[in-house]
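Quick start: read one record
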Amino acid sequence: MRSLLFVPGDSEKKFEKAMHCGADALILDLEDSVVASAKEGAREITRDAIATARARKQRPLIYVRVNPLDSVIPAQPDGVMLPKSRGGQDIMHLSTKLAVREAENDLPDGAIAILPIATESAAALFNMGSYAGASRRLSGLTWGAEDLSADIGCSQTRLADGSYTDPFRLARALALFAATAAEIEPIDTVFTNFRDKAGFLAECEAGQRDGFTGKLAIHPDQVATINEVFTPSAETLAKARAIVDAFAANPEAGVLGIGGEMVDRPHLKRAERILAATKA
């Protein structure tokens, strides 16, 4: 998944627009973007939206930022986004609940994936290593700054030049490391100023450079940029294939010379990840 677009769960109009924006996944939000008085209606709209999406041959994946589970599982979303995740224990707990709901609704076991937001409290940062092996349902891991900023009581998350302050740079790095350790997709967080196209492009490029495989979006106009930045270029793919082919032809080699450059097993692992992500 390169682009994951948040869509308010109470808006049929925004959902229909989002279906055609090119995002790899839509996150129908039943948490922060829906006021308490509108949540029941939003759950009904979300159920109908999932059914509409599943009837189409070509569609984005549909995730639901849950609140609560019972109202959306019968519609069989592709996955759920777990906000305020505290670590692997929360994933195991949610996975068990999903297994029960799948059985109750005659759905295949393990059909619904989990995408946690892993940095929304200070305590959660101390459990980032616990996601590895927590559940086969884990499809990726992302992070967030806003709830974390409220938890620690900071006055701002970014500096004047747009870069994150140190606490949030740490949270971002830990999310990247935690996802990599768990062998799932690291997804970078949102860029809220959707009118700042230059700043958004720069942040996408920084995320791709650092190892993130995709980014959350809050506006359809952000999707095309995310898809472009996080899609490997033809040159990158050719280089990755050359590395994989070279080691396949020399399985006992630890280091090989390819195109005038010395590459070793870590290069091979990265090349395999690039090709696997492109195939997915």
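Strands lie at 3-8, 25-29, 61-65, 79-82, 113-116, 140-142, 185-188, 214-217, 255-258, 261-264.
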